[in-house]
Amino acid sequence: MAALNVRSVKTVAENPNLTHIPPMYAFQTLSRSVDQKISGDGAGEDEDPIPIIDLSLLTSGAHDQRSAVMQDLGNSCQEKGYFMVINHGIDEGLMNKMIDSCSQFFDLEQEEKRQYEGKHTLDPISYGTSVDASVTEVFFWRDYLRVLVHPEFHSPTKPSGFSEVLAEFTKAVRRVVRDLLGGISESLGLDSCYIDRAMDLESSLQLFGVNLYPPCPQPELAMGLPPHTDHGLLTVLMQNAVNGLQVQHKGKWVDANIISGALFVNIGDHLEVLTNGKYKSVVHRAVVNNKSTRISIAMPHGPSLDTVVSPAAELLENGCPRANYTGMKYKDYLEIQHKSKLRGKTRLDLLKI
User: Fold this and answer.
1) Which three-class secondary structure state does DSSP give residue 159?
2) Exposure on the CB side of residue 127, measured as CA atoms within 13 A
3) In three state form, how does the secondary structure of 17-80 look?
4) How do beta strands 82-86 and 252-255 pair?
5) Which residues lie below 8 Å from residue 123, measured CB to CB, with a gap of 6+?
6) For the chain, which terminus, N or C, has the lower number of CB atoms within 10 Å?
7) What does residue 52 show for φ and ψ, rounded to 5 degrees?
């Protein structure tokens, strides 16, 4: 089925007579046996709260404050693989502008959006639906726009002002990521600049991905995105006021109820490799609802494309018995990920020794 002939989920959802999802969106193999709840209304929140990292204390706090936050950051990476970031320094008005601009993009006429239909993960700009509509057997209840914003900056030309907001916002997020990776380096007993240098973050790959999840008349049958892990070091997520992200922890799904104005961060595959498995990439998914449109912005941050990512030698020298992963060039890993279906949750098994 050619991607060009597939209607967007937004178009499907806006049909006033829609009461049941089309068969192609019925995720029949979905298992909810480990779920506490599926509705995005706070499952497990009281039992397993999401850690909160105050970035201002990490970057400019007193010594004892900074040490405490760094310890919290390391514990969050090791025990859960995700956390929320507050006081990150990104203006809330800019965050709202970015969400509004993304909403305006999806409101463009379909012909205007189709000019950005892409074929590959590293296409500078790619618009589409589901995951890969040309090969997907079951469609996911989402439309997406993916843009390569670093080391080269790209942007759609519409809507008006989108490019300017995108450039300012993604630059600010890049700063947050480098600050976090500095703290993560130190939490591992390494120099604060270790990951920055080893992963060549000056030329790092930064992708901007925005997902639109319209209301779904049968959310119990559909899926926004299935369980998976992310490539790269860290993924930063921001959303409108509608929840839908769930992370897996101790065999259960936990709703990521993100504080207003906060950023949600999860560990990616390549930080797991770099830390030799001490910090693990987290499995997560997106669920949908029957009331509100959710817009989420997910920004994977990786090393430079030519960086070979392998366990840090300094960590192996500090007590790890052996390397648990073999090295692979980042762009080769992305190529493998692009060619495989989003079913195995992670491609890290290819690197495990």
Assistant:
1) coil
2) 23
3) CCCCCCHHHCCCCCCCCCCCCCCCCCCCCCCCCCCEEEHHHHHHCCHHHHHHHHHHHHHHHHHC
4) unpaired
5) 146, 148
6) C
7) -120, 125
Q: Tell me the C-alpha distance between 268 and 245, whole Å.
A: 16
Distance set, CA 322 to CA 129, 191, 245, 325 (Å): 42, 21, 35, 9
pTM: 0.91
Please give the Cα distance from 63 to 70 (Å, whole number).
10
**Burial (Cβ within 10 Å: 0-12, 13-18, ≥19) of residue 58:** buried
Record the tokens describing residue 71, joined without a space: 């310890």
Q: Where are the alpha helices (DSSP H) in 199-305?
A: 269-274
The answer, yes or no, to whether residue 12 has pLDDT greater than 50, is: yes
Q: What is the pLDDT of residues 142-151, one digit of tens each?
A: 999 999 999 9
User: Peptide bond before 214: cis, by omega within 30 degrees of 0?
Assistant: no
- Neighbouring-strand partners of residue 267: 234
**Fold adopted by 32-350:** Jelly Rolls (2.60.120)
